[in-house]
Amino acid sequence: MATTEMEKHAVMAHRATSPDDASVSIRDLIIRYGAMTVLDRMSLDIGKGEFLVLLGPSGCGKSTLLNAIAGLLDISDGEIWISGRNVTWDEPKDRGIGMVFQSYALYPRMSVEDNMSFGLRIAGLPKKEVKERTAKAARILQLEQLLKRKPSELSGGQRQRVAIGRALVRNVDVFLFDEPLSNLDAKLRAELRIEIKRLHQDLGNTMIYVTHDQIEAMTLADRIAVMKGGVIQQLAPPHEVYNKPRNLFVAGFIGSPSMNFLKGRLAISGDDIAVGIGDLKIPMRAYERSGGDFVDGAEVVLGVRPEHIILGGASLGGEGGRRFWAPGKIEMVEPTGADTMIWSKLCGQSATIRVSADLGLHLGDAIEIGLDLGRASLFDAETGERL
Amino acid sequence: MTSAVINETHPRGPRPSRLTAGRAGVYAFVVVSCLFFLMPLYIMVVTSFKTQDEIRMSQIFALPRNFTVAPWIEAWSSACTGVSCDGLKVGFVNSVTITVPAVILSILAGAILGYSLSLWRTKGSNLLFGLLLAGAFLPYQIFIYPLVRVYAYVSLYGTLFNIITVHVIFGLPVMTLLFRNYFASVPIELFKAARVDGAGFWRIFISIMLPLSTPMVIVAVILQVTGIWNDFLLGTVFAGQTHWPMTVQLNNIVNTTQGTRAYNVDMAATILTAAVPLIIYFVSGRWFVRGIAAGAVKG
Predict the structure, then answer these.
(1) ipTM value for the complex
(2) Model's pTM, two decimal places?
């Protein structure tokens, strides 16, 4: 798979007409460390009140982008606009941002109250206003009982709430979150995720949120920017990213267990388009094309999510050409509680199937595998692009 | 008891401790070496409370028969250090006036330098740190003559300012190393958060980093107080006669060649001079170990 080709194609101009229309606007941003280019000519517009999630594996440049927006690292080229102002050369404090870090980054020797009011006190605000704003943030985040405590006396969830409060008191337009929930255990993470979502609904600020956790991305985002190698691979609402991934990387990165990829060849005769995988010929009438060129004999990858495959038999019907049936055998059963994952083979290529836990399936059972082609994805095997 | 019988045959609960021959040997070695190293201190203390007549009887391990504090008083207020006979108290005052400002200034300078080298990485900061480190490993005897010439050139040689600044300069590499490594272990996000909050270079240092570095400050105080208090060479060369520290005065008392050697006074004077670092160790030994350990684990 030619990944470099795929990444080049993914360079998109996510541009509004003018930086004034967006809450945050990145223009041709380049960040280099010596010979290594972390971000290469990135452009991105984030709307007012939008919740944008930067999602990607470690080292994809998502945190670098966030730090550049915050003004915490030097950029090599390009512009950053926030709320219609060119802030490229501004200090972090003058950018109108609040930031929340993974390690909470609370000042250890200060009380919760002092932590939250530190920035306001530096700015020389009147004592009364500092008190009011801190009290308001504490009320919103239910920290009122904890104001006099030191960070070391708080639990992880409380610490992160204080860190959010520190951003809140600044009355800024843009909130930046750098993997804020990664240090918390699973239960707290789920709780705080809801709290952040509620906060966004109540405040309506622009929020930019960096994470490598796809569940956080799917649940929180208005739009997800999936990043790899310093390039945005796809920028779209969660539903679209999940159901219509732009390329093989996005398709494989999002979803757990990940999408099944079946290698095959296009077979075109007249209006009939099919994908040939081994002896099977899968008709693609139900597939919604995304604009790529269909060339007879071209190598393609057919992507089907585990939950878009059902078990049963051809007797269940073809559902108007959407459903394609093939025989298989159960090679592994993986119960996860709510669902059970079935591992099988389709023309010698492995396939994962998500089924209900109640089916009572056993190793070695012969099964009929039904692919939902209406929800499948088809990629050019060479460029990795969606067809 | 039945349980004891079971314990011997059936392993259960904490493993019983046994006194083996090897263990006994180790204890014996520890006790003997303790006695060996404490012996000089014992002899010094008992001798300092004896009269000259008693000392002449050459029973150095014997306890004083006619207990007297006269040698201590003489050492402190009237022993002759060369020409003047005002005792060690002059040296004590000198040592305090040298040590206090030198300790404060060198720690402050090391902390600021370590802070700026670790968190505000600018071009050449690593090179500067490397040079400082090299400074820590060069024997300082080779700097003495050039420094004498420099201070003489600006007419500050042999002054209080001279000796204090020399101590600050020589303390800087180690102090910077100490604080740089400590601040390098501070999560960088703390520094970023403070910058987003609008804190500048000094505000971050004073409000966040300095309060964080209490364990390192304690270690630095101990290192510098004992180092500067015990210094002899720099004090002899740079302090000038009027500011000679206690160590130099002690040397002058002990090495006075006129008349008979007043061993009891010498012993008392030595204990007096050593008292300050000794007290520092006893009071802060716990903190010292803790500070070193904290640095070791985090750095």
Answers:
(1) 0.82
(2) 0.80
